[in-house]
Amino acid sequence: MSAFSARNASLAQSLQQTLGERLETLIEHRGQLTAVIPAAHWVEAACLLRDRPELAFEQLMDLCGVDYLGYGDDEWETAEATGAGFSRGVDALGPGRFSWQDRPEADDFPGRFAVSVQLLSQRHNRRLRLRCYAPSEDFPVLPSLVEVWNSVNWYEREAFDLFGIVFEGHPDLRRILTDYGFIGHPFRKDFPLIGNVTVRYDEDKGRVIYEPVEIEPRVGVPRVVRRDSRYIDPRREESAG
Fold it and tell me: Which terminus has fewer CB within 10 Å in the chain: N or C?
């Protein structure tokens, strides 16, 4: 493993000694440590992180699902941006758009689904990110952490609802944001924009009705910073003069 900053050196050493073979890799990026844990050691490693006095990560702040399909692929090439940036986003004009025909396919992308957990140690004033990849892309299943940190209950339900990640051992794994009869998982990158239904209450009929989903494809316009006079600090200009 590579060297760590002075701020995280002691924590990294404690993690390596405590988790041992349960730790797949340990990454530091922008001052944040991320421990990648295999699914087979997910619950065991979580218990050690919570119970060992030198770690004492007694609080789980957040858990979210991640879909890595197309990870790292940019929709826009902003390095060659022109003055027509707004029209590119609204009218799909100009270069920089990704090719829909060359989009990544789920079958060719191992390690597609993962969960990311944010931990807090109040005793040591430390934070740690955990990441665990689901072994299967077709039917992603991971052990539940409810028995370790009960605050994860609704977070795991949200990841199940939006990404389709199943948490084995969860006491009440059901949808939390979408309708119970909803088909599919909205945050998957292969989610269709047509062919599904949504529910709403109709005041005229006095009941809940189902109707086709209407989702308009929308492309956000990236913010492009150009190195011209608008971004030059006047004080820096004066000092250079």
Answer: C
The phi and psi torsions of 192 (rounded to 5 degrees) equal -70, 145
Two structure tokens written together for 34: 């991320």
Provide the CB-side half-sphere exposure for 9 (13 A, CA).
4
Residues of the chain with pLDDT under 70: 1-2, 73-104, 106-108, 191-195, 214-241
**Residue 88 tokens, joined:** 């590119």
Contact 205, 211 (CB under 8 A): no
Distance of CA 32 to the CA centre of its chain: 15
Q: Label residues 50-89 b or e (16+ Cβ within 10 Å = b).
A: beeeebbbeebeebebbbbbbeeeeebeeeebeeebeebb
Q: Which residues pair with 198 in a beta bridge?
A: 211
Residue of 133, 142, 145, 157 lying closest to 66 (CA atoms): 133
Residue 174: other Cβ atoms inside 10 A: 9
Q: Say if residues 71 and 167 touch (Cβ distance below 8 Å).
A: no
Angle, alpha carbons 191-195-198 (nearest 5°): 90
Residue whose C-alpha is closest to residue 214's, from 194, 236, 189: 194
Give the Cα separation of 113 and 66 in Å (integer). 6
- Helix (H) / strand (E) containing 2: none
Q: Which of 187, 8, 14, 59 is nearest to 115 (CA)?
A: 187
| CA pair distance 24, 130, nearest whole angstrom | 11
pLDDT at 93: 47
pTM over 0.90: no
